[in-house]
Specification:
heterodimer; A: alpha/beta; Rossmann fold; six-stranded mixed beta sheet; globular; B: mainly alpha; 2 strands; 68% helix
């Protein structure tokens, strides 16, 4: 896209982009996570990068910052195509990145000054001797670009003692050393208070006016509204949308949250739940959030929609015994329910399909049957001795009911595709005939047909009327496809609670937007939610 | 269906199921590699045995076979302990110290405390459990990395042992610092642990085989063993599956402490006195044996028979080396090479090569 506008308060933007991506793709194995991204970044502009979980934002940033050299396509800096093979090389070409976890960027034990000039340590051939005096001078110069004047006595202190917002400024000062052309900020405000965020925004606006190009990743629409010149939306590894001010938030959200055109099927089979299986009484999901009240019914699939930080995983963890409520209480089948650990939840019939399949669910190198039987070792054995036939028959049941593509129960789980691994994990938990099944992002990295099969299995489960199922997701279409009742969760608060045939995409997206205006307000006023 | 190659391990294991998708073909090289990973170690052991059997007449006697097994029993049992720690994803570097502690404490209980061997055995086993419990506490509750925690406890255990025995090796009827003679001696029931036999089979060999078989059964056939493996394979997944991860890790370290003290009992009975330097060389051998056990048979995870086999390989090597007249220090070189090869098998050659596998295109 060609930029012709002149940024406010700065000198006229040159028409040549600082950094151009053309046809950039990234694949991990057979899994394509970024597809043919073509984007230009112009000087003096702030580009907000938006996308739900797994949309490809981090992948794009990694390619741009040199952290993942295994991309295809071209990245050009000032018109010259380069291969960004390392972070050092990217920085040498003026691409500087501040990663989301500030703590990872601080080396405890080194002084603040040394932390500011850390890149010089990495470049030891140019600076063979560490000159304390020089590093103090360099650090002060770097901090001065942010308008900070920290005295030497402070600079000499251990950087681990800095508050999170000051640490954020430190890594920003470091990133700005060597006058970068493109600055990438990955959710820089996620740990900041409203006042601290405002301070950062002032700094960023000043930097923009000096001609720096900034890429700003955030989930907070209010911040983007206040700061960005352009919004780029990624979903499923593709650039879905790119627009200039004034932003059409409705459209942006539609693009971000799901494939509006692909789906639009009318649901005719929306079930109404019967009895209450679980109840959340006044439990705040997030530290600063209002207490939440929620009822999960049997006989229906409840879909809970929310972006990162909405409190989805927190809700799942509460019910599955991974976390305890800060206040308030839980009920299951009308009785008090306070699971101390996952085994307590299991005993009460509450199962969780966790968000991260590889890290939280799979046992690498184990067979399909053994992966499935892990939670059921007791009922798979007699007098403590495992019965292979019981494990195998359970595995066959799962394989048949979900259509898992595998050579059999003895196949290694590692040899299955991601979608089939996910079917195994879902099938494992549903094979227990649970009372309440919680599925946290069950469709991530799963193809359409696997999604259908998992969805059908869920409907089958609740159709008995004895079980409730909760699907937590950040994708509107997934939820529209699988859920009978839909809840939109924003910052730990229910913004919408309706049955699928009583609502539509527009209302659902509207529920997100209702939260946006509140978020925006709080960015400017006090009381910005953390 | 894609025809991408599957990892070599699977290709050689398990029958093809007629209902499943067609098994992707594997290249000759991959099948060869799988074969070597699976049978390489056994092959080396058999070749070594064959070599010594042919060249050394003394090697092929029944006495020598039991002698070798008896010689290696303490190492093997301590190695089985280390194997338990590895099973839950940890390691225990205190087995050498624990075994040495057992040697001295058994001697002290009998000689200074004037107790019979059975009492000494009870004290030692209890001590082993306590040491394992201490390790588990430091690792599970205090969250010290296993390597560092057990390194520290091994110093503490050695130091405690030396304090208890005044830094001296304890022998029967030794003279004490006040000029008197120690009241007790190594009793026959304790020495039976080394010198006794059931039929032609020496007691240490029986203990070695029984423990190996028992651990094999527990790990491979019972739900508790499966849970131990699950903790080692993916602790987070195990926790979410309702397995009490901390409990199983504690049990594994206590088991390790117990096995190390059994190793010490056998060692002490063999030496016949409370040698303060006993157990010093045990640690490296035990860890090596457990690591060799991971790669034997290409199983790729710690297992009891593999550990026993690793111990036997080392026994064969050490005995053979001695018989052909190599100096004793050649043994360490040999052990080192064996361990190195085992590690190459575990980490380098058996690594699954492919990510893309059968069924990656979902059929529907």
């Amino acid at each position: 896209m060609i930029e012709s506008s002149i940024p406010e308060g700065g000198e006229p933007a040159t028409l040549s982009p600082v950094v151009s991506l053309s046809g950039v793709s990234v694949a991990y194995g057979s899994n394509v996570v970024l597809t043919d991204v073509t984007l230009d970044f112009f000087p003096g502009r702030i580009t907000a990068l938006l996308g739900a979980n797994g949309a490809g934002k981090s992948t794009l940033i990694k390619a741009l910052s040199g952290a993942n050299p295994r991309y295809s396509g071209d990245i050009a800096v000032d018109g010259a195509v380069l291969h960004l093979s390392s972070p050092v090389l990217a920085k040498a070409h003026g691409i500087s990145t501040v990663h989301q976890k500030v703590a990872d960027g601080i080396v405890p034990g080194l002084s603040i000054a040394e932390n500011v000039v850390l890149d010089d340590l990495a470049n030891a051939s140019r600076h063979p001797l560490r000159n304390t005096k020089q590093s103090f001078l360099d650090a002060r110069a770097a901090l001065a670009t942010l308008g900070l004047d920290w005295p030497d006595s402070l600079l000499a202190q251990d950087a681990a003692r800095l508050s999170i917002s000051d640490a954020q400024l430190l890594v920003l000062a470091r990133a700005l050393r060597g006058t970068p052309r493109l600055l990438i900020l990955d959710e820089p405000t996620s740990a900041l208070t409203a006042a601290e965020a405002d301070r950062l925004f002032d700094v960023l606006r000043a930097l923009r006016d000096t001609g720096l190009s900034i890429v700003y990743v955030s989930h907070r629409f209010g911040e983007i509204e206040a700061l960005a010149d352009r919004v780029v939306v990624l979903r499923d590894g593709l650039v879905q949308h790119s627009s200039e001010r004034p932003f059409a938030w409705h459209e942006i959200l539609h693009e971000m949250l799901g494939r509006a055109t692909e789906l639009e099927q009318t649901r005719v089979d929306v079930r109404r739940g019967q009895g209450v299986v679980a109840r959340v009484n006044g439990v705040p999901l997030l530290p600063a959030a209002a207490p939440l009240d929620l009822e999960v019914l049997t006989g229906e699939v409840l879909g809970i929609l929310g972006l990162i930080g909405a409190g989805k995983s927190e809700l799942a963890e509460l019910l599955a015994g991974l976390a305890r409520p800060a206040s308030g209480s839980l009920e299951l089948d009308g009785e008090p329910y306070a699971p101390k650990r996952p085994s307590d939840a299991l005993r009460r019939g509450v199962v969780l399909v966790p968000e991260d399949r590889q890290r939280q669910a799979l046992l690498p190198g184990w067979s399909v049957a053994h992966n499935i039987s892990v939670p059921f070792l007791k009922i798979s054995s007699a007098l403590g001795t495992l019965r292979t036939s019981r494990e195998t028959s359970r595995a066959r049941e799962v394989i048949d009911s979900l259509g898992v593509v595998t050579s059999g129960p003895n196949a290694s789980i590692d040899d299955l595709s991601g979608g089939n691994q996910q079917k195994v994990v879902v099938g494992r938990w549903l094979s227990a005939s649970p009372r309440l099944a919680l599925l946290d992002e069950p469709f991530r990295g799963v193809d359409i047909s696997a999604r259908r099969e998992i969805g059908d299995r869920l409907k089958e489960l609740v159709a008995t009327g004895d079980a409730g199922a909760v699907v937590l997701s950040s994708d509107v279409d997934e939820i529209l496809e699988v859920a009978d009742r839909i809840i939109v969760l924003v910052a730990g608060v229910v913004e919408l609670d309706a049955y699928a045939d009583e609502t539509d995409r527009a209302s659902i997206v509207g529920a997100f937007l209702g939260a946006r205006t509140r978020d925006q307000r709080s960015t400017h006023d006090e009381g910005h939610p953390k | 269906m894609t025809s991408a190659p599957v990892a070599s391990k699977t290709a050689s294991a398990g029958p093809t199921r007629p209902t499943g998708p067609t098994r992707p073909s594997t290249s000759l090289a991959e099948r060869g590699a799988a074969f070597i990973v699976r049978w390489g170690f056994i092959g080396v052991t058999v070749a070594l045995i064959a070599f010594f059997v042919i060249t050394e007449p003394n090697f092929r006697t029944v006495d020598n076979v039991f002698g070798m097994l008896k010689f290696i029993a303490p190492t093997a049992i301590a190695g089985l302990g280390v194997m338990l720690a590895i099973t839950v994803g940890g390691i225990d570097l205190s087995v050498g110290a624990s075994a040495g502690f057992a040697v001295s404490i058994a001697a002290w209980t009998m000689v200074i405390g004037n107790q019979v061997g059975v009492v000494a055995i009870g004290v030692v086993l209890l001590g082993g459990l306590l040491i394992g419990g201490l390790n588990a506490f430091l690792i599970v509750v205090a969250r010290i990395p296993d390597l560092l925690a057990t390194l520290a406890t091994s110093f503490v255990i050695v130091g405690l042992k030396l304090l208890i025995v005044d830094g001296k090796s304890i022998s029967s009827q030794m003279s004490l610092s006040d000029g008197s003679t120690a009241p007790g001696k190594f009793t026959a029931d304790y020495l039976w642990l080394d010198r006794g036999s059931l039929g032609p089979i020496p007691v240490p060999v029986i203990i070695f085989i029984v423990i190996t078989a028992l651990l094999w059964f527990i790990l491979e056939r019972t739900r508790w063993g499966r849970a131990l493996y699950a903790v080692g394979a993916n602790a987070e997944a195990a926790r979410l599956a309702g397995i009490r991860v901390q409990l199983y890790r504690t049990v594994a370290y206590m088991g390790c402490g117990l096995l190390a003290s059994i190793a010490g009992l056998l060692l002490g009975a063999r030496i016949g006195q409370g040698d303060v330097s006993a157990g010093n060389s045990l640690l490296l051998d035990a860890v090596a044996v457990a690591l060799v056990g991971v790669s034997v048979l290409g199983i790729g995870r710690p297992n009891a028979w593999g550990t026993a086999l690793g111990a036997i390989l080392i026994a064969v090597m050490v005995t053979g080396f001695t018989m052909v007249g190599l100096p004793y220090y050649a043994q360490d070189f040999g052990k080192g090479i064996v361990l190195l090869i085992a590690l190459l098998f575990s980490f380098t050659f058996s690594r699954r090569r492919t990510v893309v596998t059968a069924g990656s295109t979902t059929a529907s």
